[in-house]
Amino acid sequence: MDYKNAGVDIEAGYKSVELMKKYVQSTMRPEVLTGLGGFSGAFSMEAFKHMEKPVLVSGTDGVGTKLKLAFLMDRHHTVGIDCVAMCVNDIACAGGEPLFFLDYIACGKNYPEKIASIVSGVAEGCRQAHAALIGGETAEMPGFYPEDEYDLAGFAVGVVDEKNIITGKEMKAGDVLIGLASSGVHSNGFSLVRNIFSMDRDTLETYHDGLGMTLGEALLTPTRIYVNVLSAIKASGVAIKGCSHITGGGFYENVPRMLPEGRHAVITKDSYRVPEIFHMLSGEGNVEEKVMYNTYNMGIGMVLAADQTEADRMVKAAKQAGEKAYIIGEIKDGEKGVTIC
């Protein structure tokens, strides 16, 4: 009896590392001091000494049951982008610049090509966020996960000068809410998705004119990464007073997280076009409108707050950075919370 007979193939682990090297290398930043294969990753903070009070910000998350669709479609190169996005977008909400990322893949059986495909997506997400992939772990866990399944999670660290942290404290009545378009369902609400649509290849590979792609392709579209657009808005001189990443819990849970006490957000539903995938989810599943807004991003992946005099400039800066942006509401005095009307 040996480890391989027990279900753990060390040689497959070596091959996985070899196959992922080129993807990891493509994410490197000058501050990275260690190479792939070490026990830890080292990242120099020398370049940030100019900050008055540098503050580290961090985020951790996973992809959730969206992975079930990746298993069904045998498509593994996009979920890594989701994993990075869920972490770095949270960092960007605080005004932080993502610096580095670490991933964790747990699988029932290590198929090196599949692991490399997952990591290729992680690396793509890191490149989009300008973060270095400085470490990770692939754990082969036979008997714990089915052979063809895996879980994927990650952890990111960023930096921001304390004076530039987005806190929401300066928000006042009359401030304007700007929504940045999502790329689809992103990475939340998939337990409901999997109960609404039949999870079989025929259903997922059916083309829909309204989507412009198959249902499976629409659902697996990776989470949008907003690091660059937030950086462009700040570079334009517009102050971001508040920032909310619309993830699990939709608008009702996430928008209030950026509000100070005594401020209430009012969002106008018809201020932008809700993407077709959400109409399909609502119609096929007979899901009430409030539940939809309490579960999904409904086409808005990030909500920002700006002074009324700077709202148009914020929208313009976002569009110049390649993002769709809409004025979707305003801040009023009142109990902390959100009204969608």
Question: What does the model show?
Answer:
- The structure is a single chain.
- With 341 residues, the chain is α+β, with helices and mostly antiparallel strands.
- Helices cover 33% and strands 23% of the residues.
- The chain has twelve helices and twelve strands.
- α3 runs parallel beside α4 and α8 packs across α12.
- It is globular and about 70 Å long.
- The model has no long low-confidence stretch (mean pLDDT 95).
Features:
33% helix, 6-stranded mixed β-sheet, alpha+beta
How would you summarize this macromolecular structure in one to three sentences?
The protein is α+β, with helices and mostly antiparallel strands and 341 residues long. It has helices at residues 10-25, 67-73, 79-93, 112-129, 190-196, 201-204, 215-220, 227-235, 250-254, 276-285, 289-293, 311-320; strands at 54-62, 97-107, 132-140, 150-161, 176-181, 207-208, 213-214, 242-245, 263-267, 300-306, 325-333, 337-340. Helix 1 (10-25) packs parallel to helix 4 and helix 3 (79-93) runs parallel beside helix 4 (112-129).
